[in-house]
């Protein structure tokens, strides 16, 4: 019964935040036609895409990754390291959070509604490319989560850093990466590429993909996947076992 109440409560909290965000931008678009180069329904599509990725992550790996600092502090990391499998993948996908599933469905409905309202053709190629980019951006978000948690191998508490991380996530849930200029563009699209997570699938869906963009996506995802894997393995060498 408690699990059911938690499931329903979590869903309505997330849904309320999502709806408030949509209403906020609806009010803005009542007074302007474009924000940057994004029309009203393109922006709704972007918001739906970001929520889809975040809730998909929460379903499968988010809550596994964020428990890494706690596992290090209480010594339970030993259990995962001694397993004859990839410790990072084991930790990441050990638990599933089905409370995020309704938000995944709702986000899909919102993106479909926005795409139809924008009079965008929903052909097989465009939809397939969008889905492929969703998975690539989920992988990029996964890598970013892992890199932040690796810092917990070297310091006692990273709660402040985690707060900054979530603030960056929320910021880039409201601002498409194409709207950044100058230093902020390099910061949020290359150094800390939170600005790409929803922007890439959304932008390509409406504008198509060029060879240059495809190469950039391949390079940035490959780079951060390599970094996450390398930093994780290196950090494990600095882990002090609870039995030591």
What are the key terms here?
single chain; 244 residues; mainly alpha; two-stranded antiparallel sheet; globular
Task: Give the helices and strands, then pairings.
Blueprint: H1 2-29, E1 34-35, E2 38-39, H2 40-60, H3 62-65, H4 68-74, H5 77-81, H6 87-92, H7 101-117, H8 124-150, H9 159-171, H10 182-191, H11 199-207, H12 211-236
Antiparallel strand pairs: 1-2
Describe this structure in words.
With 244 residues, the chain is mainly alpha-helical. It has one domain. It is built from twelve helices and two strands. It has a two-stranded antiparallel ribbon. Helix 2 crosses helix 11. It is globular and about 55 Å long. The relative contact order is 0.13. The mean pLDDT is 88.
Main pleated-sheet profile = 2 strands, antiparallel
Kindly estimate the percentage of residues that lie in beta strands according to DSSP.
Answer: under 5%
End-to-end gap:
42 Å
Described by the principal axes of the CA atoms, the overall outline is: globular
Q: What's the average pLDDT?
A: 88
Task: Tell me the number of structural domains.
Answer: 1
Helix and strand element order: HEEHHHHHHHHHHH
List low-confidence stretches: none
The secondary-structure class comes to mainly alpha
């Amino acid at each position: 019964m408690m699990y059911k109440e938690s499931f329903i409560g979590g869903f309505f909290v997330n849904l309320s935040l999502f709806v408030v965000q949509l209403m906020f931008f609806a009010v803005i678009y009542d007074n302007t036609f474009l924000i940057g180069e994004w029309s009203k329904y393109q922006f709704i599509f972007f918001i739906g895409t970001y929520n889809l990725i975040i809730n998909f992550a929460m379903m499968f790996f988010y809550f596994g990754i964020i428990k890494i600092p706690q596992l290090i502090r209480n010594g339970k990391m030993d259990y995962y390291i001694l397993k004859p499998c990839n410790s990072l993948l084991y930790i990441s996908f050990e638990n599933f959070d089905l409370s995020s599933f309704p938000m995944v469905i709702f986000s899909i409905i919102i993106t479909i509604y926005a795409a139809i309202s924008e009079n965008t053709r929903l052909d097989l190629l465009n939809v397939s490319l969008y889905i492929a980019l969703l998975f690539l951006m989920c992988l990029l978000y996964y890598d970013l989560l892992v890199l932040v948690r690796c810092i917990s191998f070297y310091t006692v508490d990273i709660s402040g850093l985690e707060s900054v991380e979530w603030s960056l996530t929320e910021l880039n849930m409201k601002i498409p990466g194409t709207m950044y200029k100058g230093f902020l563009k390099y910061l949020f699209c290359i150094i800390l590429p939170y600005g790409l997570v929803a922007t890439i699938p959304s932008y390509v869906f409406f504008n198509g993909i060029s060879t240059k963009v495809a190469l950039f996506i391949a390079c940035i995802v490959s780079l951060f996947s390599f970094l996450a894997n390398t930093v994780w393995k290196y950090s494990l060498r600095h882990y002090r076992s609870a039995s030591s």
